[in-house]
Amino acid sequence: MLDKEWTSCTLPASFAGYFDHASEELPEAEYTSFRQLCEQRLTLLITTLEEQYDESRSTTTAFPQEATVGWLASLIPLASPPGPVVYPWHTPSLQSLAQRALCLLAIASNPVDIRPETTVTPPTQTPVLCDSTSQDTVSRTLAKHFADNLVRHHVIPYFTQATPRWETSRPHAGKPKQRTQEERRIQFHLDQPWKKKHPGTVLILAWCAKHYPVPWTQGQMMQFVPATLTLLDDYDCYYKWWGVAIGRDLLANDQQGYTAHLKSSGLTLAFYNALTQCLIYRADEALARELLVMVYQELPQWISYMHTPRSEKWYQSMEQVVYDGILKNFLYHGERVGLLPLLFEHVAVYARALGLSTVAYLKPLLAECCKRLQDIIMGSPDLLLVHLGAAQAMRVLIQTCRPRIAYYDEMITHAFEASWAQLSDPINATLSELPQLRALLLSIVDELQKGHPVEISESTTVTTQDGFRPLG
Question: Which residues are listed as membrane-spanning (predicted)?
Fold first, then answer.
């Protein structure tokens, strides 16, 4: 049988303590020790749950709900995908054990949705989660019966105990330390209980939001909104990423519900403002790219939910994303080569969505494309990706804003000739994606010629199956 720590109604003390340490930077030996301890405890929990299942198959007595909620709070952070960061302690074997324990817990706690017939196999052959479908089934079943208690006892208390921004805790000092505004902001985010004392809270919140049964009531929706907005406002890109992911699940649930609580209450605007703040946030962080990818993908969904697609307000919101999320990133972070292909990719995405309305920002967007096409590749795969992204974005801009492209012929032509010259540079000969750049540049010329003749230097020639031909 399990010891008192495992059978307690709250988060098991020793397990929670080890989880807290696992979220920090520890030596590999300590990570190994932590993994071994977790595997031992999970194996013990699985054995006990199998015994419980065997004893209660023929009865209708439910497993203690409070104990189940406490175990769920410990198992969910281990069984769930870790998000954009994979901690060293989060191994496939540990995740598999936690998922098996969740499956057994769903059966032993006696929800009728998943409980098998009493004539089924003995406990040694208890079903094991083997694919994503069965894992989702178990999670939805557990969420149906226990998500309310999980949110009430293991999420909301830790977020409501947040340290106010204006409060400074210095018990051994007679005079509060004077801080700059930025230092106060950092300290505020570092002191939060859900981050410092209970790091698994975010994964529990994400699990509940994903698997919560639909439709939600307004009260159930409002249990998630404050914590999600807190994550979006956090200083760390990791928690911002989770805020975006949980917001996506809230939006999906709101759209499926009988009443659009987020839309009717105006909270969609709060989420939209929080997401737009993520677009130009700390691009020097390791997770900044993953955060941008997520926000670029989710913002159109929120905008289309807030406003009727193709309405005036819809266009205004989409254009605001182009201005704040793309042009400002070019301005502030244009020297970050790893970020440029992502920005050019979404220039093309938003240009296609906006259509001819893109002309409002055509000049600065084309200027960025031309500027990057004139950079020297110098045999660098990263710089080649920048050329590919800029060429792709330029082609889409030409297609969507064709009536205005004639005003920028000279700028486009110079950029094309500079990029084309890189194709014949011997230092770039080993780059495997060079043919893709060639094809994109040729497609740009074809798009230009569709609208009107374009004069290109006769010295700029292209190799075809028939030999050489001038582009002019």
Answer: none
The answer to whether position 200 is within a domain reads no
Half-sphere exposure (Cβ direction) of 459: Cα atoms closer than 13 Å: 5
> Would you say 333 and 339 are in contact if contact means Cβ atoms under 8 Å apart?
yes
Give the containing element (helix H, strand E) for 469: strand 467-470
Q: What CATH number is associated with residue 324?
A: 1.25.40
Domain that holds residue 75: 1-149
Query: Which among 103, 128, 149 is the end of a domain?
Result: 149
Q: Residues 6 or more apart from 313 whose CB is under 8 A from it?
A: 306, 307
Instruction: Provide the token pair at 207.
Output: 């699990």
| Angle ∠(384,385,390) on CA atoms, nearest 5 | 100
Contact assessment for residue 397 and residue 369, using Cβ atoms and an 8 Å cutoff: yes
Domain boundary among 115, 149, 183: 149
Question: CB count, 10 Å around CB of 444?
Answer: 24
What does the pLDDT look like over 225-280, one tens digit per residue? 999 999 998 888 889 999 999 999 999 888 776 557 888 888 999 999 999 989 87
Residue 408 lies in a domain: yes
**Length in residues, the chain:** 472
Does residue 321 lie in a domain region? yes
How many domains, the chain? 2
| Alpha carbon distance 139, 53 (integer Å) | 18
Q: Say how far apart CA 292 and CA 432 lie, in whole Å.
A: 27
Percent of the chain at pLDDT > 90 equals 39
Q: Is residue 208 part of a domain?
A: no
Three-state secondary-structure class, residue 429: coil
Residue 462, classed as helix, strand or coil, is strand
Which amino acid, 215? P
